[in-house]
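Below is a filled-in request sheet from our internal design queue. Each sheet records the structural input a requester submitted and the sequence that came back. We keep these sheets so that new team members can see what a complete request looks like end to end.

REQUESTER: design group, bay 2
PRIORITY: normal
MODE: inverse folding
CHAIN LENGTH: 208
BACKBONE (tokenized):
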């Protein structure tokens, strides 16, 4: 018996457009982000989904609502464990500003040598938090299919943890808006990555 998990990233946000480290800070979906979420829902319409969970941040929750709008009675349960990384002093700041003021810190962060932004969550904490949230969902729906809506760095972190990659390799992925990652877990807990970062459903979508 296996439990199937579909992990998706939220749609495009204004924070994405501005290159900000939003982390736990709120940022709204753009009109394109809404269309991306709707396209994701159409893509997954034929997929079995027995339960759904999302980060409690609005960009993930609203993406989940669009994905599930054609599934009456099924709503995504909010789970703070699926939130994006908390960036501490960098919360809400644009990357270009950090690159100008703290280029070495920013470089070391994305190369895994700096374990956290100043005052922020560490890579290990993020990996443990997000992977634990996925395992809670699996425990509640063994043998079923679970949808999880989360964030880019959070998804990279949970995958790095499940794949047992070293901390320095946590950012060794790409994660596009509304991309689909499929994985499964055996009864014994064995993890298998089936596909990653599939965003073909939004190819050709553009801003109005």
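RETURNED SEQUENCE:
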């Amino acid at each position: 018996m296996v439990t199937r998990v579909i992990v998706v990233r939220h749609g495009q946000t204004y924070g994405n457009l501005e290159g900000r480290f939003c982390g736990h800070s709120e940022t709204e979906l753009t009109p394109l982000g809404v269309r991306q979420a709707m396209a994701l829902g159409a893509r997954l319409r034929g997929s079995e989904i027995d339960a759904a969970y999302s980060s409690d941040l609005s960009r993930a929750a609203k993406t989940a609502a669009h994905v599930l709008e054609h599934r009456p009675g099924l709503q995504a349960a909010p789970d703070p464990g699926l939130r994006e990384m908390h960036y501490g002093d960098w919360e809400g700041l644009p990357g270009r500003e950090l690159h100008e003021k703290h280029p070495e810190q920013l470089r070391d962060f994305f190369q895994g040598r700096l374990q956290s932004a100043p005052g922020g969550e560490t890579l290990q904490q993020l990996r443990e938090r997000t992977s634990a949230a996925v395992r809670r969902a699996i425990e509640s729906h063994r043998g079923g299919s679970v949808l999880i809506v989360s964030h880019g760095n959070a998804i990279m972190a949970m995958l790095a943890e499940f794949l047992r990659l070293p901390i320095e390799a946590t950012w060794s992925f790409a994660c596009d808006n509304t991309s689909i990652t499929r994985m499964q877990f055996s009864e014994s807990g064995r993890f298998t990555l089936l596909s990653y970062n599939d965003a073909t459903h939004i190819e050709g979508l553009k801003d109005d």
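SHEET NOTES:
- The longest strand covers residues 2-9.
- Residues 2-202 form a domain with the Rossmann fold fold (CATH 3.40.50.1240).
FILED BY: M.R.
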